[in-house]
Amino acid sequence: MGKEESPQVVTRRTTRSSSSSTPNSKNLETTKSCNPQPMTINDLVFGDEHISFDDLISSLPGRRSQIHELVRLLGPLNSPTIPLFIYGGTSTGKTSVVLQIFRYLNRPFVYTSCRTCYNPRVLFESILNQLSLHRKDVGNGYSSAKRCERPSDFVNLLREALLTVVNNLKGHLENSSSKKSIGRISGKMVYLIIDNLELVREWDKSANLLPFLFKLYAILMLPEVGLVYISNTSPDTYYSDTGYIEPIPVYFPDYTEEDLRQIFLRNQANQKLYSSFLEVVLRPFCRTTRRVDELSAAFSPLFKKYCEPLSDLGISPSEEMKRRLFSHLQPHIMPSLNEVFKISSRPSSEGESNKEKANRQGCTQRLRGCPAIDEIDFHMSTSAKYLLISAFLASRNPATLDASLFDSTGGSDNRKRKRNSSVKSMEHKEAAEQELLMKGPGTFPLERLLAIFQCITSVEEYTLEEEEPGTNSLGVESGDSGLMSDVLLQVSSLCNANFISKGGSCPLDGSTRYRSTASEDMALKVARSLKFPLSKYLYRR
Amino acid sequence: MAPSAAANSPPSPENTECNLQPFFVLHKALPSNSERKSMEKTASRKRTRRRIDLSPSSPKSSEQSEAEFAGDHHLRTDAFRYVWSKIDSTIKNVLRNINADVFNDILFWVQESFNTTCSCGMPDRAKATRSYPVVTGPLSKQIYTGLVFTQNMELVDDLLTFKDLGLHLTSHGCHVANLSSFDFSAKNGIDGCLRGLLRQFLLANLDVADMSILASWYIDQGNYENPMVVIIDDMERCCGSVLSQFILMLSEWTVKMPIILIVGVATTVDALSSILPSYALQYLSCHKFILGSPADRMEAVIEAVLVKQCSGFSVGHNVAIFLRNYFFRQDGTLTSFVRALKIAIVQHISMEPLSFMLKGLSDEDSQDLWSESPVFLPELFKRAFDLPSFRRNELTETNEEILARGLSDLKRLKELWSSAVMCLYEAGKGHKITMFDLYCETLDPELHHSRVSDHHLGLETKVGMSSSDHQIRERLQNCGFIHQVIRKVRDLPEVLLCQLLKNWEKHTKGIIEIHAKVRELQSSLKFEDDKGLKQGLTDLSKRQKIQSNFNIEKDAKRLNEKTTELIIWMVKNYMLPIECIPFHEIICFTNVSKLQSALIGDPRRTIQVDLLEFHKILKCKCCSKSGNNPLPSMHDTSIMYVLTQEHGDLINLHDWYQSFKASILHPRIKRKHRLKHSPSPKKKMDTSESRKKSEASVQAQFSRAVTELQITGLLRMPTKRRPDYVQRVAFGL
């Protein structure tokens, strides 16, 4: 219940790439009062205080060899480097490692992520802004330093900006050699880091931006520039035959179980308790994923569950207690393994919906719809419900069957014939069934939908009046107002709610084809709410 | 505007003259008759009127139909404005109150999650505007997301809700941006969505939209004092890839600026997982909020607007049932209900000349209902006493006093009715008896008559539930909801009964007769309560205790009986449906068919009728006498459509073309004869022109007309299978 109200210190792991919070809060107060100072060349290095190599290694468990290799590849101070290509699965520490290495090396760098810079122009301008120490703010109307859209402009501007930066750095170096105290920047090299490179493939239709980015080193011909590409796909997935210097690949493999244990154990308040927790959960989860972000998202609620029976979170658990805690946790592991995302809700003042909410609170939504809830939990008008059902029928049933289903005489004949079918035709049918399964729900024109709608509503109204004449006194009187009025409007709102998908075509032709995307569960629920015998109309091979 | 200066005296002609709207003058040019609004006339103009009424935002459209009651159209406009503004504000208030709880919940959650984000340390300014990500832990990329379930498939009702939510959060210091699915279209991509975001936050249209701009803006707005909230009101319609891109981008920046998402979900949770890929979903840490369901809102609106009579306007039984069915079966949105209500008001005011009294009737202070009327008083009285509901009473004398008394009676009876309905509703609240059903039932005049004429309701209480009389059972079916409520009251436990009486006391405040009875019951309840308590304290012996408990139980049963009697008495004596009260026509709208035709437009039928009977609209002299034979002076499309009437569902194109050509060219021969008698130069030119009309131009006319028919949806073009046939789509009217 009160999960969110009391965020426990234990589960919040403050640092991964150690931006410790105490100096920040000091900085906060100072910057709040004074106006932003103009950016200096110092802003090109990683902001925080210097770390030693040992700190670097220990802050990134399981990445020792990669760090060694990268440091080696980046080389000693002021030595030109060939572009690096760092790749590995999502959440394997690529970006963190690179950033931390630059923090350790204290070399100036420019970082851009192709996620945030979602098109070439934003990417170029972001790099140029950082190099020319330009910051977008109210003063300059949030505009960039230079407007740059084409790669050719970018090369010129970039060369210009790089040269000024490098000259600045050289000047800085000479200054700092006389006055040692200021000198934080080491070297006169500038590194460009381009993260999430795999996304460029998507926004680059004519496929010339990627080769351009790879060729940048050769085009610029500046020994003072180092390039680092970070991607989560291997270099083979890029076009690599256009004659640029191949960047040196550095692979970040997935973490091993042991690495993960170390990562998760860092910054835990109660190491012993957490390690006993990890003993329980890490193995089963590692089988499904080794991504740190996914695992930590799954672990944090589980750990809360794990700690529930404990009053004192500081204790180191004994064997017996571990066993007890395990048995407490065990029922929650399997559901948590399957869940894609979970929704929590707060206990609210509303009395009515509280019960329903409580039902949901534990019940997590899985990708395969859960059959627990029997009624649809949102409002649909009756005609929309009928439309949904008819769309569902139109998608599931072959069009040739419509006549026999909705014709009062045809239905029974058909069923008899089906029973007498021979083995061969059965096989044939099975194949067809398989095919249908692969194809998914079929498409149908609007006319067919409307015809089915008309049929089932007229049938329904007829039976309704026949069976229960007295109860629905309000309904019968309005029978003539029917359900036909705004059907097209309802179709469009069903489309909007993603229950029907619409294939694009010329609206004049009237041959737009629709497809029902509602799940069978959904259709059954709707049918149940209308007391409509859906299964009678469904064609079951 | 107030013509009250000319009180009681007929207004000077200049006065009325200058009040005429241009619209009105136009209409007046038509042949008008001075007699009272004739039903035939309005019926024949129904179609044109409906078209005007469909734009309910122009209240002026209402007054044009009554040309004869020239002076009071502005009074009626006034009345409309008054009534509508009252209803409108009431509805808004109701909705605000319904949402208030959820809004506060959301606000609390926003602040709480903002605090959790901040508590893990916010980066300083220099860091936040740097381009590299600040990572404070694997969970720091999570975006707090509030899923607001609207519980309605249709979105219209909730557009306003989300806007209100935005305002609510803004007023508590959050930075809010309201995005809609248009910002997440596949066409504009992520660029359009960021642009929209920046436009809302920065109030500026920028050349390049970029998250770093947002970050530096946010820091300029004071360092991490207020959360940023992005509201997306219709998740289902968003393009999934753009939305997931947006979420991924936000997750990169979420440490630098605490953005909180609020997403409106119209259907189920599954919709979210079907739209978004799992790698985007995992960045959302979701919370669930549920808005009031449309049915609940409807209840509240019905209660506030129609039962409690905020404006004096009310609707008849049939209209109520129509509205109910329209809501549950057809549309299911509050918006369309409100629209229907508005149309009803417009139509009522336009149809009922005395409706201008609505304003005076619902105002507490104004006593002189007709003092403002520019009409001669005698005429007004004549009209009022002509109302069928008055004539039913067969009173012969008609004077001012009777009308005044009648009107005040009307008002009082309505109040009685509404408090009785409220009491019923209160009793049936927990038992799935909805306000709408109850409302419809209590408006039924026939049910009321049957209630009054046979005394079953009273009788049954004496007989009790044991009676299995056939008649009773039949009646039980007839007045379903009221009877259910009464049965519920009979079985109510004591605590709830006490509460119910307390609520009744509230609802009957101001109505002396009922109030007194309720108070009496309440005091007896208290008295018995005390008695029971005292007995329990004093008598210690076990047997006596049991006895006393038994007594208490019996007392409670008696009390239940009494309460039941009270409510039956209320229903019988005070719950007079509006349509049984004299002069109800002034305030009550009863014409279902009009409302229906205005609401459920029948576009295809209208097109067909207009094509066949175009002369009713064009009013040209040349075609009106033609009957059903196509004349060349008719519009091509009309000719074509008239010709299609002779065909079955398949029309041979060639035949059709031939008959079209014939009907264009053929009557000319006849006319030629006539031309000899009266050769007017104009016609001569006409014929010489038409003679020149080549085959090609006829074909052009023909194909154009076919295309028009296709566009209006009356035809389907030839298919490959049958290249020489078109298919008729619409049959009959």
Automatic annotation (TrEMBL), chain A:
Entry keyword set: ATP-binding, DNA replication, Nucleotide-binding, Nucleus
Localisation: Nucleus
UniProt feature, compositional bias: Polar residues: 23-36
GO MF entries: DNA replication origin binding
Ranges of residues in domain Orc1-like AAA ATPase: 60-216
Recorded superkingdom: Eukaryota
GO biological process: DNA replication initiation
Domain Origin recognition complex subunit 5 C-terminal: 380-538
Chain positions covered by the region annotation Disordered: 1-36, 345-364, 404-430
Pfam families given in the database record: AAA_16 (PF13191), ORC5_C (PF14630), ORC5_lid (PF21639)
PANTHER family: ORIGIN RECOGNITION COMPLEX SUBUNIT 5
Family: Belongs to the ORC5 family.
Protein name (Swiss-Prot/TrEMBL): Origin of replication complex subunit like
Organism this protein belongs to: Actinidia chinensis var. chinensis (Chinese soft-hair kiwi)
TrEMBL record, chain B:
Compositional bias (Basic and acidic residues): 34-43, 683-695
Low complexity bias spans: 55-64
GO biological process: DNA replication initiation; lateral root development; response to sucrose
Keyword Phosphoprotein: no
Region listing for Disordered, in residue ranges: 30-70, 671-701
Pfam entry (one): ORC3_N
GO cellular component: DNA replication preinitiation complex; nuclear origin of replication recognition complex; nuclear pre-replicative complex
InterPro entries linked to this entry: ORC3, ORC3_N, ORC_WH_C
Stretches that traverse the bilayer: none
Sequence ranges of Basic residues compositional bias: 671-682
Localization annotation: Nucleus
Molecular-function GO term, any one: DNA replication origin binding
Keywords from the named record: DNA replication, DNA-binding, Nucleus
Domain Origin recognition complex subunit 3 N-terminal: 48-357
Origin recognition complex subunit 3 winged helix C-terminal domain residues: 604-731
Similarity field: Belongs to the ORC3 family.
Protein's name in the database: Origin of replication complex subunit like
